[in-house]
Amino acid sequence: MRKFLEHNTPPGIDTTLLRSVFGIGMLLSSICSCGFIARYQHWYHLLQTWYTPGHAGFAEANPSMPPFNALLGSFLFGFVMLALIMLGFVIYHYFYCRQGSKSVYLLRRLPQKWEYHRRCWLVPVLCAATALLTGLVLGLIDLAVYLNVTPEHLLPDQIWQFDWRE
Q1: How many angstroms separate the Cα of 101 from the Cα of each of 104, 131, 164?
Q2: pLDDT digits (tens, 9 = 90+) for 134-157
Q3: How many other CB atoms sit within 10 Å of the CB of residue 43?
Q4: Which end of the chain is more exposed for a tag (fewer CB within 10 A), N or C?
Q5: Which of 155, 136, 150 lies closest to 77 in space, CA to CA?
Q6: Rounded CA gap, 122 and 111, in Å?
């Protein structure tokens, strides 16, 4: 991993900051994404306890789970924010190369025309893509839990419901 970072970041840059921001960001975003399971479990327990078929309040209340997007809320937003922060490292890498007598001139003279830009863009873009892909996979897992665990009589008519007036 360190060898990959050395060859794909500006020469001489300390990658500790990038690695720690990415690691802590992924950890915090993953922990925050668990909020969906807590919210889902709360609604599931509420509906299973109070609104089961045969219960007195079932017929008049017509209960159902909230739509998936209402339960999901902004629990996966941490991954989007992490991707934006990682793209901020592109700017940091460009500024790093231009500080004092750094390597911007050396990188521009290399036979590979795009070496300078590759070293500034590759690692932050890979980190951003990893964060977004992780958020997408966790969102799909949440959707699978929502669709497969919720009993049929508790699923709403529309799983995706948007109110643009809010």
Answers
A1: 8, 34, 52
A2: 999 999 999 999 999 988 888 888
A3: 17
A4: C
A5: 136
A6: 18
